[in-house]
Design brief:
Elements (H helix, E strand, L loop, with lengths): L2 H14 L9 E3 L2 E3 L9 E4 L20 H20 L42 E3 L10 H7 L2 H10 L35 E6 L3 E6 L5 E5 L16 E7 L2 E7 L20 E10 L2 E9 L8 E10 L14 H20 L1
Antiparallel strand pairs: 1-2, 3-5, 3-12, 4-12, 5-6, 6-7, 8-9, 9-10, 10-11, 11-12
Length: 346
């Protein structure tokens, strides 16, 4: 174990005890405060939601759902979950869908294992994206569009959807390889399960621990500069500061080696920068807002807002590597696919 890794473990472990030492904290209309005066953001935050990142095209200029529409969506989701939970067992074949096959049979996961949430976000917006005003990601630059529409991007998409064999493990994304997950970001994003993060504070550091892949970002608040841009990292290099009662985290120097929310395949991430804002609305609600900039990918920046709710429970460890034989199975299956294709070509 390296000294640097040991220090990180000690820091996270120490921060896990911080709530025990916060008995002297105060509170105001926006929620509790730490003994040193900052809003107390510590705890587990749940960000499950049915609200998509981008507004569905068919909704046009509709920025918000009505109360009735949000209630109907929730009831439909609860009814679907109940139906899928109680239906008779079925035999199915492999697919690239998660319990959403056209014939009604389950996909590669049963709905039982998923935890997407049952409600839209509290604001009832039709998208997490709030800027641009149409609720959709900006137009890609021409070079990015060519990369996204290239034969290689199409091949990788086919591999990751299970339609094409993988030439090597490098064709699989970082999540499949148990290295790093797009949901953990940054920025944080939703998915089928593990939609929680834990936040720890000291006067001069913040730790954001994502449930997916159990990745932790240790963020200094002491004004130190970013590391050299030559030292690009999976989750970038983060620095934080307080802007009034809002925690602001700026992250640069991504290495571009894993998929991130909204970023198309074959985009390097070298010019990517991220600004996250964490604002305690009250003791039970946290507003998470982030702005993404990359002039080599998008023609302008974009911003999303994702409200989070306090979760009274702790998170369990997500251990992707332990007993995971998926990569071996994927590679073995790809070789079988290639052999069958060669035999059929004779």
């Amino acid at each position: 174990m390296t000294h640097r890794y040991l220090a990180a473990v000690v820091l996270v472990a120490g921060m896990a005890l911080m709530p025990m030492f916060a008995a002297a904290q105060t509170a105001d209309a926006t929620g509790p405060r730490t003994p040193w005066g900052h809003p107390d953001l510590q705890g587990t935050w749940d960000y499950r939601t049915l609200t998509p990142l981008e507004r569905p095209v068919e909704l046009g200029d509709k920025a918000f759902l009505t109360e009735e529409e949000a209630a109907t969506l929730e009831q439909e989701t609860l009814a679907r979950n109940e139906l899928l939970l109680n239906r008779a067992p079925e035999t199915t074949s492999a697919s690239d869908q998660v319990d959403r096959r056209a014939d009604g049979t389950p996909g590669f996961y049963n709905n039982f294992w998923l935890d997407r949430g049952t409600t839209p976000i509290a604001t009832r917006r039709t998208s997490l994206v709030v800027d641009p005003a149409n609720g959709r990601l900006p137009v890609l630059t021409e070079p990015a569009r060519r990369r996204a529409n290239s034969p290689e991007a199409a091949r990788l998409e086919g591999v990751r959807r299970g339609r094409l064999p993988a030439a090597s493990y490098e064709d699989l994304d970082a999540g499949d390889r148990c290295i790093q997950h797009a949901k953990a970001g940054p920025p944080l994003s939703t998915g089928g399960y593990n939609n929680n993060m834990m936040l720890f504070q000291t006067p001069d550091h913040v730790v954001i621990l994502a449930e997916q892949n159990y990745d932790a970002r240790i963020i200094p608040l002491d004004g130190r500069p970013h590391v050299s841009p030559r030292l690009r990292q999976w989750m970038g290099d983060s620095r934080g500061y307080w802007e009034g009662d809002t925690l602001v985290v700026e992250t640069v120097s991504f290495n571009g080696k894993h998929d991130q929310i909204g970023r198309p395949l074959l985009s390097s991430g070298e010019n990517l920068s991220l600004v996250e804002r964490f604002t305690l609305m009250d003791g039970e609600n946290l507003m998470y807002e982030y702005t993404v900039r990359d002039p080599s990918i998008w023609t302008r920046s974009w911003t999303a807002q994702h409200p989070m709710k306090r979760n009274p429970d702790l998170m369990f460890e997500f251990a992707c590597h332990e007993g995971n034989y998926g990569m071996h199975g994927i590679m073995a299956g790809s070789r079988v696919q290639e052999a069958e294709a060669a035999a059929n070509a004779r």
